[in-house]
Amino acid sequence: MAVETQSTTEDLTDLPPEIVATLQAEPPHPDLELVERAKAGDTSAFEQLVRQYERQIFRTAQHITQNREDAEDITQDVFFKAFQKLDQFQGNSKFSTWLVRIAVNESLMRLRKRKTSKTVSMDQDVQTDEGSIPRDFAEWRPNPEQNYSQSELAEILRKTIAGLPPGFRTVFTLRDIENLSTEETAEALGLSVPAVKSRLLRARLQLRERLSRYFRKTKEGSK
Amino acid sequence: MNCTDFLAKLTDYFDGQIDPELLVQVKEHLGSCHHCEVVVDTTRKTIDIYRGHQPYEFPEELSERLRTAVMNRCKASVTK
User: CATH topology for A29-113?
Assistant: First the structure.
């Protein structure tokens, strides 16, 4: 009995282009089904989306505002706004990127309202060349973070990232901590890809420079 | 390639988005410049440390409290 051979990419060449495009298209992101169900009134589907992204939204808000209470309020507001505006989500970007964009806008708005902060936009403080050229060339100890307790290390990381201008802090948070791609980060922040790359480089270099105070090798080789 | 040229390519180098010809030049520079080698090594560690040690806690209690509050607001807005 003849056995049908496994289909290969070459087999597709005989098919009409629109069929080939459909076959080669990536499967839809699982969030889309949840969004469609939520749009149709299924609140449990929306709750599932909240469950998936609340941590990311909370951390993004806390990194930008540097305030826990603000981050809690913002997280609630982001998901409530998203729920109310679900019809505006067309699926052209990932649902998570759409949420992050709302979170960034809400966080910046919160900073503007907080009169104690002079910082009001993603562009503030990013025009200088400060921190774009490395000055510290000391090597670090192997696994330098192990020389600190969890709480000491958390305090060092919080203090260090809090010292960055919000425009740099936000790009570093989305790209390097929350693992968004460069393109997704650009989309979430309304920036060009080159602008994201430039800010990311300077954020990384400034953090490196500041962490070096804690992690560099000493003559004694100890903490 | 000098240190300034190298620095301009650092983000693409970390993200693996550098064309092979340029990658050869980047690696040559790294092999001959200890300062840039240290910058690459410590910048990579900076990223790894932030990825591996979230400075902000998000305990289950907070997660539940926020989710309950969000869903109450959403459901209330539907029934209005």
Answer: Rna Polymerase Sigma Factor; Chain: A (1.10.1740)
